[in-house]
C-alpha cells in the first residue's frame, strides 16, 4: 500500500480510535458482577447483562472489528479477501485504501478531498483523532522525502540495545560470519529468558531491516534451548545493529509495475537435521515488498530439489501479491519473473520430467508448472553473483553482503526531508 501511494504521490494519514473496544455490540450472552462503586444496595445479588463490549473480554477484539467492518461496507468500502485488515474504496476514478490494526488506522486516497471526506465520516461514526500525515506507526517511523518514503525503527533498535546492555558496544560489519551454521551444542545460557526476549524483539526489527532476516531466523530456531554459541551470535547481530543504527527501508516513487522475485536455497545447511534454508524477496518495481528466510520442512535429496522448493515458496508469495494488487485496482499486465541460480530448477519449471531425484516432489512441480503454463509466472536463471536472495540463506563476506543489502534498499536516510513535495 505504501509503495503504491508513494509512487502515485498520494497523501497518507494516520488515525487513532478512542476506546475502540467500547464501540463493539455484543451478540453473546455475557454477565458480570456489579462493578465497585456502582453496587445497587437494594439488589446486591444481581449481575449486569452486557450489551456493549469492555476491555478484557475475549470477545472484545472480534466484535469491535465486526462493528468497524459493517460501517466500512455501509459507506462503500470493500473488504479485501487477501488481507482481512484492508478495506478498499473505489468510486469512478477515486480510490482509497484503509488499513486497520486494532485502534490504529492508516488511510490513503487518490485526492485530498476524498481523504478529508472519509476522515469526517469516520469521525461522525467513532470517537477518533486525526494524527495527520503518517509519521510513527506501530514502532515504525516514516519520513517523506524528495525521494519517496523512509521507514526506520531506530528508536526500537536503541531500546533493544539498552535491554541487552550493549548501547556502547563495538560495531561489526556483518550480522553473521561465513562459518558453519549454528548447532545445538554448547553450554546452556545463564539467562534463557533474556535470549528469547531479545530474539523475539529482533524478529520485529526485520520489518524494516531485511538484511538481518537470515541470522534472526537462525537464532529463533534455538529459542526452546539456547546455548552460549547462540547468545554469542545474537550479540554479533546487536553489534551490527549498533553500527548501522540509522539504517532503514527506502520506498521510491516507481513507474514500473513489474513484479520480480529472487529465490535461493542453501542445500543441507543445517548441521543437525540436514534441512535446507529457503529464502526469497519480492520487488514491485524498485521497492521490496516481501522477504523470507525459513528452514524447509523436509530434507531435500539434491540441490535441485531444495532450490525448487524455494522457487515454489516464492511463487506462492507472488500469487498472493498479484491477487492483492488486483484487489487494489492495480492489476499486473506482465508475468511475474522468478530468478533462481539453479539451472535444473529452472528447467523443471517448464519441463516437469520425473527424474529419479525429483519424482517425489510432485505437488510443488505441478503447482509451479501450472502457473508458468497460464503465463502468470516465468522462472529465469540468474548468476550467483547477482542472486540477492543469497542474503536470506547464508552468511556472506562483507563486500557481497553490502552489495546485496543495497539491492534491498536498506541504507541510511541521507536526503533532507521536505514537506513541500506532497
Describe the structure concisely.
The chain has eleven helices and 18 strands. The protein has 422 residues and is of the alpha+beta class. β10 and β11 form a beta hairpin.
**For the CA atoms, what is the radius of gyration?**
25 Å
Strand order of the largest sheet: 4-5-6-7-1-8
Proper CATH architecture of the largest domain: 2-Layer Sandwich
Give the class-level CATH name of the largest domain.
Alpha Beta
Quaternary state of the chains = single chain
Q: Report the total helices.
A: 11
Largest sheet: 6 strands, antiparallel
Which whole number gives the mean pLDDT? 89
How many domains, as an integer? Answer: 3
Overall 3D geometry?
A: globular
Helix amount = 25-40%
| Secondary-structure element order, N to C | HEEEHEEEEHEEEEHHHHEEEEHEHHEHE
- The name of the CATH topology of the largest domain is TATA-Binding Protein
- The helix-and-strand class reads alpha+beta
As residue ranges, the low-confidence spans are 415-422
Which percent range describes the beta-strand content?
15-25%
- Termini separation: 17 Å
Task: Characterise this structure.
A hairpin with a 6-residue loop joins strand 4 (77-79) and strand 5 (86-91). The protein is built from eleven helices and 18 strands. It has helices spanning 2-8, 60-74, 112-125, 154-163, 192-205, 213-220, 228-243, 303-327, 343-350, 362-373, 398-407; strands spanning 11-17, 31-33, 47-49, 77-79, 86-91, 94-101, 104-109, 128-133, 136-137, 140-145, 148-152, 247-251, 259-266, 277-284, 287-295, 336-340, 377-381, 410-412. It folds into three domains: 2-138, TATA-Binding Protein; 160-246, no CATH class; 252-382, Nucleotidyltransferase, domain 5 (2-Layer Sandwich). A six-stranded antiparallel β-sheet has the order 4-5-6-7-1-8. Helix content is 33%, strand content 23%. Helix 5 runs antiparallel to helix 6 (213-220) and helix 8 (303-327) crosses helix 9. It has 422 residues and is an alpha+beta fold. The radius of gyration is 25 Å and the shape is globular.
